[in-house]
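For the sake of transparency, this paper describes our internal protein records without simplification. Because each token names a local backbone shape, the row as a whole describes the fold. One such record is reproduced below, unchanged from the form in which we store it:
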Amino acid sequence: MKVIDAHLHFSNIQSFKETATDLSEISYNAAGLMKEYKETNVVLGIGMGVTERVPGEFPDRTTSSLMGLDLEHRPKEIMCCVGINPFLFTEASLVELEEELQKDWVVGIKIYLGYYPYYAYDAVYQPIYRLAKHYDVPIVYHTGDTYAEKGLLKYSHPLTIDEVAVEHREVRFMMAHFGDPWCLTAAEVIYKNRNVYADLSGLIVGTDERVGRHFDRDNRYFDHLRQALVYCDSYDRLLFGTDWPLVQVKPYMEWLADMIPEAFHEDFFYHTATKVFPKINKFL
């Protein structure tokens, strides 16, 4: 079965480098990523654009208004969702964003709710949603817990996306991390809104040993996730993602395969991503 990783990172962020070395024990570079993808039949990945001007300052409010993938030379198998820094986003940024969206390998837009203190429905994002509709690309939101103490959780709660999904019915929205730990709320937002999806990336950070601990069905830690998956009853709107380099690809894939009913594996691991990110089809 071919696999698409709908959420990874390929940016020169200090915390990602430290996680790769100290927690997930991976090679955080193009060679390391391609090795893991080859072993797991991942044919394409979608990188979430993010940059920091000062090492260790993620989320950096002073970085550029549009954020890309700057770890090293981008492999041809890696697409990009250009990231938005709302603190510096201007009319000129909107023009630049439109230019970026005309590039084949830019397949979506990433908004970092919680990392930047703006709600999904804030006025700064409204012209971006209109641009997403025009170019038929999705908006990917960070939702749930933030991988930085400087994040503010009230901005990343998945319920705030309901208002945007209703107002912009012709735009596809993807909630990264399924709103964890507010997965049940995220499930309701998906159940109610046909234009909302979620990836299951970044739910575990660490090595294959850390992932393996959660295979035990008696482990109650992820009961909230299992309940939300059943309540949502929309497996065709869930996508596989790793949040690499936070976790190794193979064990994380195996763990999620145990979570998702086998009848939906092809949608979850591949087909739904081609619908949410239609621009990737030309690379498959």
Notes: The beta strands are 3-8, 42-48, 66-67, 78-84, 106-111, 139-142, 173-176, 196-199, 238-239. The longest strand covers residues 42-48. The CA atoms of residues 15 and 172 lie 30 Å apart.
